[in-house]
């Protein structure tokens, strides 16, 4: 069997499908780990990062703060967690080696009409010209409610 790496958005959609089929095993595992505080101690696999992103995105509560470096995972795992910026007031993404693809996700959150994002820390990332252009498009959106950027 050939293993194909799927995008964060695609994987989250798969969790929505599993949820519709009442298969919540991985999501329940992540929820239990969140409650126990074990997530910061454990290295998360990519699928666990996707499950965590799903749990945080489908939560009725908006996160006050999302610090990407809190989660011990690979660059691919961080990429899968990035959509969580759509459901937080403050996103701390400093020194996370963000890519152009990362900037697309953040720009999408900035352009979302229901995004609670007000504070965004992108410091110490080499975003490149194309990444900065994507972020500028998000910042210029009429829906952008960002108050602080650093």
UniProtKB/TrEMBL annotation:
Gene3D superfamilies: Ribonuclease Inhibitor (3.80.10.10). SUPFAM superfamilies: RNI-like. Keywords: Leucine-rich repeat, Repeat. This is NACHT LRR and PYD domain-containing protein. It comes from Anguilla anguilla.
């Amino acid at each position: 069997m050939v293993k194909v790496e799927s995008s964060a958005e695609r994987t989250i959609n798969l969790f929505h499908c599993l949820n519709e089929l009442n298969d919540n095993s991985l999501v329940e595992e992540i929820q239990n780990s969140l409650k126990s505080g074990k997530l910061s101690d454990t290295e998360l696999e990519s699928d666990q990062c996707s499950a965590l992103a799903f749990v945080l995105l489908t939560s009725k509560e908006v996160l006050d703060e999302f610090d990407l470096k809190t989660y011990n995972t690979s660059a691919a795992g961080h990429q899968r967690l990035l959509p969580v910026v759509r459901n937080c007031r403050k996103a701390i993404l400093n020194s996370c080696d963000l890519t152009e693809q990362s900037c697309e996700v953040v720009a999408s959150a900035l352009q979302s009409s229901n995004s609670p994002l007000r504070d965004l820390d992108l410091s110490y990332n080499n975003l490149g010209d194309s990444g900065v252009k994507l972020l500028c498009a998000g910042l210029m959106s009429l829906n952008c409610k960002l108050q602080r950027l650093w």
